[in-house]
Design brief:
The structure holds 2 protein chains of 2 kinds. Chain A is of the alpha+beta class. Chain A contains 3 helices and 12 strands, in the order H-H-E-E-E-E-E-E-E-E-H-E-E-E-E. The radius of gyration of chain A is 26 Å and the shape is elongated. Chain B is α+β, with helices and mostly antiparallel strands. Chain B has one domain. Classes of the chains: A alpha+beta, B alpha+beta.
Amino acid sequence: MIPINHPRFSSRRRSAFTLVEMITVVGIIALLVALATPALVDVIRSTRLNSSGDSLSNRLSLAQQSAVAKSTEVEMRFYKYIDPSNSDAAATSVFYAYQVVETPNSRDPRAISEVYYLDSGTVLSDNQTLSPMLQTAVTQTPDSRQQYVFKPSTGVAPSSVTYSALRFYPDGSCRVLTGSTPGQTAAASAVAYTLRPLSQTFLTIVEARDLLNASVPVNFYCMQIDSYTGKVRTYRP
Amino acid sequence: MKNQQSSPISIGAKGFSLVEILVSLAVLAILLLINVQVIDQVQNTWAASNARVSQFKEARTAFDILVRNLSQATLNTYLDYQSNYVATAAQTAGTTGQSPTSYQRKSDLQFICGPSSAVLTVGADTFPGHAVFFQAPLGVTENPGYVGLDRLLCGRGYFVQFSSDAAFRPGFLPPGNFKFRYRLMEYSPPAEKNQIYSVSRGVNGEVTGNLYADARALISTGETALSVSKTRPIADNILALIISPRLEKQVSAAVLPTSIAPSYAYNSANIASPTVNSPQGTQHLLPPLVKLVLVAIDERSAQRLAEQSGSETAPPFGATLTTPFQAAAALEISEVPALVKILAAKRVNYRIFSATVSIRGSKWGI
């Protein structure tokens, strides 16, 4: 009637799990977790790569549109510096961040966006075959008030930061920084930035662990930018 | 007590019975099934709307570029004597004189539009719809030293082509899996490569060669900074581009706005519809208005079309995209609806962009 009072329950000790049962269950759970983890880690990695790439390609479009809307030249700078805290490439100069900068003729360049850092675990490749657009990097120079446009958050000296740049023009076109001295005047920047052929205008985000690999990584997010129209087209494996 | 001991269920009562488990499993399965269906539906809708938004964003950008550039088209016309500039031996010797035959409107440039198959002399299957070629002061140069010269004359052209992305996608991507799509192509040689400087000319200085002959030369994989391809895709999944030159208003009941290009073809180098008062007709004149219609589909529809047609490399619509367009006067009334019917039959997600561009350089009334 009332089972708890029944003598058989206490005698057979059915009121709790035995140690063996518990160990079996925990074992099964551990096995499942162990099987699922690698797949899950891959999913997380590729999600991060995706979101990193999506935000960059959206911001490239935004920069292009703001150049058209404001009828000025707008520059997307990709900052490269050595970050000792990066365990994958502690001694290598890596592209970690980017920013939209306006460069009025003969005046100091001015940031018109905040600094966007790529999601942790993802970096812009500087490999010639993966990112032909990011082959020329020039050293950041201080402006007339001895200020730098970009100061890394990790305490790296701003004078050691180099950058590659894409420049969007009021007619919607896009040129790549290929000269080593961009200068501050319209004449200097006209020569330093060149119109590249479509087969040379792409850049690729890779996972940080693939950065120093010479071969093409398994997972990547490649953005191709049409020089004439400034349009971004993306390629995923 | 007694009851529990005697009943066979009494032992089973400590756990669940098989029937209970089965029932609960069945309920769970039904719930899961419903869940999966809902998630699937949401995911489909999301992906479809996402594809549509991004696809049509690309088409709209390309359409804006087309409209902006076309409105700047120029012919740079001038008035000059019609006379043979190549002197004969007798003229050089001074024994005979040379007198001009007339005083004419002239131009070294050309505006040409019409069915791609005729303008580019190519097959209508891979080049559906119409093509337009013109000259405009766009100032695109290869040499960075010319950057200040932002009004340099450039040739421009637009047409739709069914092609693979093998030639222009980044070189490190694994070969294979090329995407064959209908694409809006832009012919945009830099100012240095403008054919007006090298094309063959007749004795009166008129253009006899084809100013846009190199438009068909597609992008090459061996591109370098100094040999840039002249034709590039500017938007994927554009099925058709229709171009109809028009007058600003209907002159009379008999003369429709489309009378300057009744079957869409217009070539500013040709003498067309001459009259006694205007023996040149529309030669060396830009049409005052150009009606543009662009038909874009989304990437998912394009994928489905490729799967349905069975062959990745063959254009899924064949020539059916070009055949509805025969008479410019019927463009809005019956021709665009005919194309829409074709698209609807294939259950394609499409969008039609349309605009009437006024060409600023046109001197029609003068």
